Amino acid sequence: MSGPLPIRWGFLGAGYVASRGMAPAMHAADGAVLQAVGARDATRAAGLEPAGPVGSYAEICARDDVDAVYVSLPNNDHLHWVQVALEAGKHVLCEKPLGMDAAEVAVMRAAADQSGRLLVEAAWNRWHPRTRRLDELVAPITGQREVRAWFTFPGVPADNYRLDPARGGGALLDVGCYAVAASLAALGAGAVDVSEVERHLGPTGVDLTTSAILTHPNGSARITASFERPEAQGLIIETPGLTVEFGGQAFTTWREPCTLRVVQDGDVREEQFAACDPYQLMVEAVSARIRGEDAWVLPLDTSEAVAATLDAIAATAPASR
Fold first, then answer.
1. Burial of 173 (0-12, 13-18, 19+ CB in 10 A)
2. pTM above 0.90, yes or no
3. CA neighbours within 13 Å on the CB side: how many for 91?
4. What's 126-281+303-316's CATH class?
């Protein structure tokens, strides 16, 4: 029996995430093929082993043998190339954060609506079975909840775009989006108020550390993102009668087993999750949705809510050096 009709993907960018995470996922995925790669370095593009040619970003978007485009470029390039790909009639999977701010995300969404094509933010950890299980546990909660989410690590190379404010650098956009997204998912639908924001700017003007409190009718969350604190990731959700805690890396578990600790009405259990590749799960789900199948993909409503919250955090308090 033949498998699903493969979606032919074109990559824009052949950097670390594209080469280490997404290209292997494409090659392993059912119903997807890495057809073509666009990059400034043709040798690096060819190293991703596409079935077809390498070329420029514009050439990949214009190809008739490409159904969907994956954008893996610095944050400031997302808006332009998402629009180009959509206008060329391609479906788009774009790296997180989807836009530099909520206004960019709104422009992208309008372009997707106009083109009739699918646009999905590549927040790959959201496809991990542990994250999907967390969504199941949190969905029926009716009481107040307290959330703590953090993602920190020390040091970014001096020439990295993450230290360039013009290219969408800073800890909040880079790793804070994980903590904010998890907090919003735990708190439930609706807007949050932002308070107690603390930011530390580095010499280039980007935030090296940002922390904030998010307040929601269902509870509150404290988030922390940093390029200068010891390496740590965590997510804890506490409600009356239920506590859920991610074991190990909360947001970047990849090809390794992990756990979810649940304390429910005094009973403690540790749910086990086998090693998997969330990049591959994401590729397969987005490809299936493009074919018209009923596969879960991250809603644009969620991407817009995360972007708006990141904007609010950045605007709430003056940063300190």
1. buried
2. yes
3. 19
4. alpha beta
> Measured between alpha carbons, how far is residue 143 from residues 119, 136, 183, 216, 221 in Å?
34, 15, 15, 12, 14
From residue 136, give the alpha-carbon distance in Å to each of 34, 146, 235.
32, 17, 16
pLDDT in tens, 247-267: 889 999 999 999 999 999 889
Structure confidence by residue, pLDDT tens digits, 52-65: 999 999 999 999 99
In angstroms, what is the C-alpha Rg of the chain?
19
CB-based contact 16:96 (threshold 8 Å): no
Q: How far apart are CA 187 and CA 262, in angstroms?
A: 17
Determine the Cα–Cα distance for residues 154 and 228; give it in Å rounded to an integer.
Answer: 4
Give the separation between CA 177 and CA 303, rounded to whole angstroms.
10
The pLDDT of residue 244: 96
For the beta sheet containing 242-246, the strands, ordered from the edge strand earlier in sequence to the opposite edge, are 193-201, 207-216, 219-226, 145-154, 228-239, 242-246, 258-264, 267-273
- List the catalytic residues: 96
Q: Is the pLDDT of residue 1 over 90?
A: no
* Residue 287 Rama label (left phi>0; alpha psi -120 to 50; beta): alpha
Confidence (pLDDT) at 321: 63
Place 76 in a pLDDT band, splitting at 50, 70 and 90. Answer: very high
Residue 291 and residue 157: Cα distance in Å, rounded?
A: 40
Helix, strand, or coil (residue 233):
strand
- For domain 7-122, the CATH superfamily is NAD(P)-binding Rossmann-like Domain (3.40.50.720)
Query: How confident is the model at residue 142, as a pLDDT?
Result: 87
Measure the CA–CA gap between 184 and 128, rounded to whole angstroms: 17
The average pLDDT across 151-176 equals 96
Q: Give the separation between CA 260 and CA 129, rounded to whole angstroms.
A: 11
Residue 181, phi-psi category: left (phi > 0), alpha (psi -120 to 50), beta (remainder): alpha
Q: Where are the domains of the chain?
A: 7-122, 126-281+303-316
